[in-house]
Input
Amino acid sequence: MTTDVRLLNYCSDAIDDLRHIAVALHNLTPHTARHANIVADMLREATKFILPNCARLIDLFSIGDSHLELLRLPYPIVAFEAPWENEKEVEPTLNGYRQHKSSRRIALCWELDENFIPFPSVQQSRIHAAFPDGGIFIFPIFYIDRLRSWQFGAGGSFVPRDFRTDNVKKLPATHIVHSALREVGRASGKEYEFRVQPFVLMPELFSELVARGDFNTDRAIAQVNLDAHDEVMMVIQACSVLNCSNVEMEDVRPSRSANAIRTATCKSPFFTCKVLQVSMDHSPGAWQGWGTAASPRMHLRRGHLRRLPERVVWVRAAMINAGSRDGIVVKDYAVRPQSKVNER
Output
């Protein structure tokens, strides 16, 4: 089923670029250089997933509690790769900071874990004290087309397991984020809101952000969240699908000849990546509907209790209408047919 899925190899190229950046920054910004090398190591160790263009797995307008409840990583360290060819032009500025086109994205993720602290200076202990139920760190790594190089943000976003905003006071940076997104037409004010905690990973880069933003720390913190906004939505969508009962993972492996060339040129090897395998065996792909409630788009059915005559069972979340071409990109992940009788 994965013969049509092409390896993106984003992590391989990003590792090499980050190593070069770390060498160049070693004397000027030693903390950023050290953390860039750690990020490169994590990219190498991460389990890698290929996602569709702009990570369009589900309808963003449908995101709510049911999706955030599925925000669980399948492996300790995960890297989600996705091409990012958008129809809209890149905004010249966002929150007053200049923007550049980025047609390739990586979201590097890891769970909050007292036994795994790759960046002690991120003050993970403080985040753990504030969010004892845990959560996921999401760090954006992006390809700048103009520079033809992979770069990284000054920090990223932590999405806590306790994601609801009830009785949570909005900080100045949060207001800045919402205002900046509305200003460029990327938000209307009616979107689902959930808690996101920014974290600084590259201290010298963050200091530069503060200086470029007229020394407004709240504005710089807001930019850290804004720079990771697309990657956060990428991870929420991916985890929503990954944690469904009718979704499996399948490996796509690089060719030996391609890796032999990489080795000969002292470049990082291409890695095995996983694609999402949506099975129609447990999902009504030929779903029939009528009236205004009929919807052919693939969507998430929330996990729920089902009462049987002899017992009550829990039914895991599932992707409904997995066979629909409305709203999915078939070549970016495989859809397994129900049976050969239904094939045309």
The CA atoms of residues 11 and 43 lie 6 Å apart. The chain has nine helices and 16 strands. Residues 281-296, 326-335, 337-344 have pLDDT under 50 and may be disordered. The first strand starts at residue 47 and ends at 50.
